[in-house]
């Protein structure tokens, strides 16, 4: 990892922490991206839906801005086709509902609050990710 990449990672982590902290301070909400997305789809008429949609748009816009203005960042190479990406997205969505939250809600905000449930959920997320990569590599996928 180059020094520039290290600084970008530190700045990105600081911005994630700052945004999650500000959301909690000003709105009393945990920055759970899957919850924001699911609630915006399921309850589009709620008063807070506009703020949730703006939060999600900001995530995508931030990525696009960094990709445009910072050389060498933002490129993606799919390791599976679009069908695999859709399947993965559906499985992640199901898992976040099953686990009552996602990595942003549990892994960033929950661990910061020392929530035992979030600590356990994040450990399960990480173990599932490591196990999935191991199984896929054993099966001959990259």
Between the first and last Cα atoms, what is the distance in angstroms?
Answer: 21 Å
- Poorly predicted runs of 5 or more residues: none
Main sheet specs = none
Write down how many β-strands occur, each being a DSSP E stretch of 2 or more residues: 0
Descriptors for this entry?
142 residues; mainly alpha; 75% helix
Overview of this protein structure:
The structure is a single chain. The chain is an all-alpha fold and 142 residues long. It has six helices and no strands. Helix 2 crosses helix 3. The longest helix has 25 residues, at 3-27. The two termini are 21 Å apart.
Question: What's the gist of this structure?
Answer:
This protein is mostly helical and about 140 residues long.
Task: Describe the protein's topology.
Elements: H1 3-27, H2 33-42, H3 49-69, H4 82-98, H5 103-112, H6 116-138
Helix pairs in contact: 2-3, 5-6
């Amino acid at each position: 990892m180059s020094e520039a990449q290290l600084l970008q990672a530190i700045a990105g982590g600081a911005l994630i922490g700052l945004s999650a902290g500000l959301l909690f301070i000003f709105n009393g909400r945990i920055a759970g991206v899957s919850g924001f997305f699911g609630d915006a789809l399921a309850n589009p008429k709620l008063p807070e839906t506009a703020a949730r949609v703006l939060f999600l748009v900001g995530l995508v816009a931030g990525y696009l801005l960094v990709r445009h203005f910072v050389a060498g960042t933002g490129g993606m190479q799919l390791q599976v086709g679009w069908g695999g990406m859709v399947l993965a997205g559906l499985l992640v969505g199901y898992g976040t509902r099953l686990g009552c939250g996602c990595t942003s809600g549990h892994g960033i905000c929950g661990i910061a609050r020392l929530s035992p449930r979030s600590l356990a959920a994040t450990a399960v997320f990480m173990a599932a990710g490591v196990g999935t990569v191991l199984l896929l590599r054993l099966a001959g996928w990259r």
